[in-house]
Backbone:
């Protein structure tokens, strides 16, 4: 993983992205994704394993992926 994540919201509604520390379960980054291209800055995350969750406007998770920060 680099210092930025690029996520494209292909809907006409905002979504929410949450990055969770896989070890502690704590949310470390939460942000709104506007329609179109979005950048998430993850430079300040410590080395480790994280999960990213994307939620739709109804707060339902529709995508999850493991992230590894080296």
Residues:
């Amino acid at each position: 993983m680099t210092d930025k994540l690029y996520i494209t919201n292909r809907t006409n509604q905002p979504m929410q992205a949450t990055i969770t520390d896989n070890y502690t379960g704590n949310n470390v980054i939460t942000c709104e994704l506007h329609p179109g291209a979005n950048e998430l800055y993850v430079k300040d995350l410590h080395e480790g394993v994280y999960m990213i969750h994307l939620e739709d406007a109804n707060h339902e998770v529709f995508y999850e992926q493991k992230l590894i920060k080296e």
